Amino acid sequence: DVKVTQSSRYLVKRTGEKVFLECVQDMDHENMFWYRQDPGLGLRLIYFSYDVKMKEKGDIPEGYSVSREKKERFSLILESASTNQTSMYLCASSSGQGRHNEQFFGPGTRLTVL
Amino acid sequence: DQQVKQNSPSLSVQEGRISILNCDYTNSMFDYFLWYKKYPAEGPTFLISISSIKDKNEDGRFTVFLNKSAKHLSLHIVPSQPGDSAVYFCAASLDGNKLVFGAGTILRVKS
Is the bond preceding residue B82 a cis peptide, omega within 30 degrees? Predict the structure, then answer.
C-alpha cells in the first residue's frame, strides 16, 4: 500500500512565524504535490514537483515555497504565516509512469494561524 | 475562474436509493476525469476514473458517466449506503499528472 505521511495532523502558529510542513511518501513516486483545502473552494494546487530538486508553481503559490532535496520528501514552507493561510494542507504523490496517474494523499495537516 | 465545477454543495439520499453527483468542466482539453472521496480528518482517496474516449465506467456500486459534448460528468452510487457519506471531489487532468479539482459535494446517506 502506498503511504503518504505528513509530519503533523494539527498545528497552531502565530502570524509572522516561519512554518514547515513535511510530507514523506514510501512508494518511490516521482511526482509530489501540495494542496490546500478550503470550504467551497475544493483542493487548490500550491506547488508540485516532478523530480528531485525540481519545483513548479501551482495555482496559488503566493506566500509559500517548497523544497525537494530527496525523492521521498516534499516540504511546504510558509515564509511568514498569515491568518489567511489557516487551512487544511494536503500532500499527494503519484508515480509519474504512464499516461495517467492516480494521486495518493496524506491525511492532511490542519493549520491554524493566530 | 473554476475550470471544474460541482454546483451542488450537498446532497441527502435515503439508504438504498441512488446518489447522483454532478460535475461540469469548461476546458475541452481535459482528457481524464477522476472522482475522489474524502472522510473528515482523512486525505482524499481515489474512487473511480474515466478517460475522455469513453462515456461510461463502472466499478461495483459506482458508475461514472461522461458527456463530452455537454462537458459534464456524473457519479452514480447504487445502492447508497450510510458508509458512503463523505465529501466527493471531481477532478480533471490535462497532462496526466496535474489535477484540477472541483469544490466538492457533501453526500449524506440517511438510514
Answer: no
